[in-house]
Amino acid sequence: MDAHAMHIANGIVDGPVSAIFVVFAVAVLAVCVVKARADLDDRLAPMAGLVAAFIFAVQMLNFQVLPGVSGHLLGGTLAVILVGPWVGALCVSTVLIVQCLLFADGGLTAIGLNITNMAILGTAAGYLLVAGLLRLLPKTPGGLGATAFIASVVSVVIASQGFVLEYALGGTTDLSLPWIAGTMAGTHVLIGIGEGLIAATTVATVARVRPDLVYALRKFRKPVVTPAPTEVVA
Questions:
Q1: Distant-in-sequence, close-in-space partners of 32: CB < 8 Å, separation ≥ 6
Q2: Are 146 and 224 in contact (CB under 8 A)?
Q3: Which of 49, 63, 146, 173 has its CA 20 to 30 A from that of 16?
Q4: Residues 172, 173, 176, CA angle at the centre, nearest 5°?
Q5: Tell me: the pLDDT tens digits for 134-190?
Q6: 18 Cβ contact partners less than 8 Å away, ≥ 6 residues apart
Q7: How many CB atoms are located within 10 Å of the residue 30 CB?
């Protein structure tokens, strides 16, 4: 067991469960590819590349949580705000695959587990929170920053609990499940705060300089209703 690997290492979750989550991850990412085609345009495509590069950089900062499992910044909420849920999930997945194949960060047999937790659960939770919060908070750089912070903290914790579920289904060590859940949640609250500060600063800056590049401001803005012209009767 490699205690220094990022993400989930090989052997932490047994083969059958790992295989199930590979199939699940592939199926969800296939849906993301189809849905992302409708979102991609001249503004979103280059932004997606920048987001993936930024996530790759911040995920290199990791913290040991359990033997063979580490915690780190995820970037799912940041991706959702800047490029949307479908493209965002693909950005995070691409980063995870590159890290696994080129840098041995995370086990190859655990790639489905890692994609499920970080690219799917984390991004989905971030999307739901962002969509809900932007209906309550002002759609300004400050409101967007607050949204990014709250959604980042919650989505990171939710993503960490995905591992708890996977471990409950096929864990290969004798660690206590309640202890794992508590340790993962507690550690990732702190990680989520750090991620939230980075995400809030980043999206607020982009929104202030180029609001047209922020997916959330374009997609979650309430449509402007133009009153119908009144007929003038001569």
A1: 86, 87, 89, 90, 93
A2: no
A3: 63
A4: 125
A5: 999 998 999 999 999 999 999 999 998 999 999 999 988 888 889 989 988 888 888
A6: 109, 110, 112, 113, 170
A7: 10
Cα–Cα distance between 191 and 210 in angstroms, integer?
A: 28
Pairing verdict, β 62-66 and 69-72 = antiparallel
State the amino acid at position 135 in one-letter form: R
Task: Give me the sign of the Cα torsion angle 164, 170, 173, 176.
Answer: positive
pLDDT tens per residue across span 101-135: 887 777 788 999 999 999 999 999 999 999 999 99
8 A C-beta contact, residue 92 and residue 122: yes
CA 19 – CA 196 distance, rounded (Å): 32
